[in-house]
Amino acid sequence: MKCKKCGAKASINMRQHKLALCKEHYLAWAPEQTERFIKKYRMFQRDERILVAVSGGKDSLSLWDILYCLGYQADGLYIGLGIDEGIGYSAESQRLCQKFAEARGLHLHIVDVAQEYGQPIPALAQISHRGRGRPCAVCGLTKRHIMNRVARDLGYDVLATGHNLDDEVAVLFGNTLHWATSYLVRQGPVLHEGPGFVRKVKPLCRFYEREMAAYAILRGIEYIYDECPFAEGATSIYYKELLNKLENDKPGAKLTFYLRFLDAREAGFFAPTADSMPELHPCPNCGQPTSNEGLCSFCRLIEKAQLHA
Ligand code: Q46
Ligand code: ZN
Ligand code: ZN
Q1: CA of 297 to the centre of ligand 3 (A)
Q2: Residue with the nearest Cα to atom 1 of ligand 1?
Q3: 230 lines ligand 1 (CB under 6 A)
């Protein structure tokens, strides 16, 4: 297989784009595409300050690297979850994020959940009824709270996450199976800011997972290969496997599913309902918007944890 641009040996073949590229041309192509998506979906402007949520994985570190190469003002945010099962997942992912930032002279904010709120994620999950079995619901709630808080407190215009096409399509597939229209109406490359909410963007939403893995490897980015130990057996992973089978037989199926969904959403196919737009008011404790009466779900979780301490 030869590079379509220069004829040298190709490093990656993207069947869905009918495009094979060598290392040099792929490392130019990926940021060009990202810039195109940033503009197309009006994610942010050159003068805006971006906070990139980094986990130490290939997607978020590649995203930070691409924004840095494109000349955007992007700082990082690492959230220490305190997940030390198996390989010492959190400690290792934090080390890789710090190493990445230092090598490029970039600024990384670190928030450690246990230091800030008294308990790491696995312990918080034990306390909450949401966390029986798998800590992911508590983990997701905590990460969303911290990301929004840090972005707002430190005056960032936008929060960027490294979700790739495979992630987005797995979520879309799950929501479609359940016709969860209140989620479908909000899924997309940009979630606009609202009172108390920072804008959220996903600049990698049109890249396949293997394209980001290739980017990270070809750029020599050191990232954590292992998934979080709690990801094992998650429904989203099962959906990804199903969708990979489909993609294998029909190259481009995932991208088409996602892009046609965005078209349908744009055309008003999933109209907002009272359910998808609940009335929000500021939490009396932390000030973040919530649809709860009284404390937001995160503050309730922390209150419960303190009672158990
Ligand atoms: S980090 Fe947290 Fe994920 Fe681990 S505990 Fe679950 S949600 S799997 S993205
Ligand atoms: Zn080439
Ligand atoms: Zn709160």
Answers
A1: 7
A2: 228
A3: yes
pLDDT in tens, 259-290: 999 999 999 998 777 766 778 999 999 999 99
pLDDT, tens digit (0-9, with 9 covering 90-100), for 81-131 = 999 876 789 999 999 999 999 999 999 999 999 999 999 999 999 888 765
Question: Whole-model pTM above 0.85?
Answer: yes
The response to whether residue 89 sits with its C-beta less than 6 Å from ligand 1 reads no
Report the number of distinct structural domains present in the chain.
1
Instruction: Return the CATH number at 74.
Output: 3.40.50.620
Residue 238 lies in a domain: yes
Q: Which ligand is nearest to the CA of 80?
A: 1
Q: Is 91 in the pocket of ligand 1 (CB under 6 A)?
A: no
Q: Is residue 20 one of the residues assigned to a domain?
A: no
CB 57 less than 6 A from any atom of ligand 1: no
Flag whether 91 is in a domain. yes
> Measured between alpha carbons, how far is 207 from 64 in angstroms, rounded to an integer?
15
Range of the domain at 68: 44-277
Q: Is residue 204 part of a domain?
A: yes
